[in-house]
Amino acid sequence: MPLFIRNWSYLTWLLFFGCKKAGMGGDAGISVYVRHHEVAIPGATVYVKYNEKEFPGTDVTKYNLSVVCGDSGHSSGHTHIRNLKQGYYYFYSVGFDSSLMQAVSGGISLHIKHSERKKEAELNIPVTE
What we know:
The protein is mostly beta strands. Helix content is about 10%, strand content about 45%. It is built from 1 helix and 8 strands.
């Protein structure tokens, strides 16, 4: 087999299988805060979509993971998501602002870079009515 064909096959294999996909099984962590006008939203649900840069929509069945923020103390409007791989993620949150008696929602994307794959980042999800 000619050398360029062997190298091309190797390069194709490396590009196809060497790409890292976002998801569970890594060492990165995210400390997530859900806030409406800088006020924590206790009990908010955070949905996570792997390998996504743009808002995937409000259909929560399309998301890969969900976690609920704490209701009181340090955990009020706050949660941790651990063991993430490097890659792109979209975080979408739904909650209830009891001071306004309004449902709130919002989202934000996050890219965990290779250099950040063993660290914990802080993420603020702004939500609105």
